[in-house]
């Protein structure tokens, strides 16, 4: 019943030339500007050798635990003893917590403010620019049908129930372009660029070595937790039947 009440539109090519392309071009150029502005605001610090060593040790222990079944049993026991030996194991080292010292460092707050400034302010500027100049435009149509539940997602700024859900407004296209430019930014600026919000979030959650070397992290508790996790691993080698599997696959 909904498909019978929808209204079909013929999109003028001028909308593509004077609305869609300017939005894409503006967001691309603004992303490049944000990338270099973030680099200029970034504070260069000397790495703490002790923290990096602790983070790398923890990452190695996690790698052994994750891939334990892909190494021989004797090799796993040797690595487990290296990390969990009661007196000499590297995960049994006593590491004093220094969370208060890192919280008292004003540079941490400054870096956080710079990151928020480089992430939030450009999005507010771009969204305000698109909303002010191009609000209410229908600029594209999906080549596939959508249900009515997607109307609020793809038709922001227009409240018209008779319009087919497959039509997209400029406000909704902004978010699609924001994520669609990720590949272009990676091609122009490289993989580790500051023009992509999702890339920045991924870098912050990229793994234990990147997150655990930061300030305010209690490495002693992380060592203790990883030591307990390594003790719970039950080694079941997946290489026992490797020769037989390889010969059967080659026949």
What does it look like?
InterPro entries: EMC3, EMC3/TMCO1. It is a multi-pass membrane protein. Belongs to the EMC3 family. It comes from Acrasis kona. This is ER membrane protein complex subunit 3. With 251 residues, this protein is mostly helical. It has one domain (2-250). Helices cover 62% and strands 3% of the residues. It has 13 helices and two strands. The protein has helices spanning 2-5, 13-41, 49-66, 73-84, 99-103, 106-134, 151-154, 170-180, 182-189, 197-204, 208-212, 219-231, 242-250, and strands spanning 138-141, 167-169. It has a two-stranded antiparallel sheet. Helix 2 (13-41) packs antiparallel against helix 6, helix 2 (13-41) crosses helix 8 and helix 3 runs parallel beside helix 12 (219-231). The protein is extended, with a radius of gyration of 27 Å. It starts with a helix and ends with a helix.
Compact description:
Helix 2 crosses helix 8 and helix 3 (49-66) packs parallel to helix 12. Helix content is 62%, strand content 3%.
Topology:
Blueprint: H1 2-5, H2 13-41, H3 49-66, H4 73-84, H5 99-103, H6 106-134, E1 138-141, H7 151-154, E2 167-169, H8 170-180, H9 182-189, H10 197-204, H11 208-212, H12 219-231, H13 242-250
Antiparallel strand pairs: 1-2
Helix pairs in contact: 2-6, 2-8, 3-12
Report the principal-axis shape. Answer: extended
Gyration radius from CA atoms, angstroms = 27 Å
Largest sheet composition: 2 strands, antiparallel
- Category from helices, strands and their pairing: mainly alpha
Question: Taking all residues together, what is the mean pLDDT?
Answer: 79
Q: Quick one: how many beta strands? A: 2
Membrane topology: Multi-pass membrane protein
Keywords: Membrane, Transmembrane, Transmembrane helix
GO biological process, one term: protein folding in endoplasmic reticulum
Subcellular location: Membrane
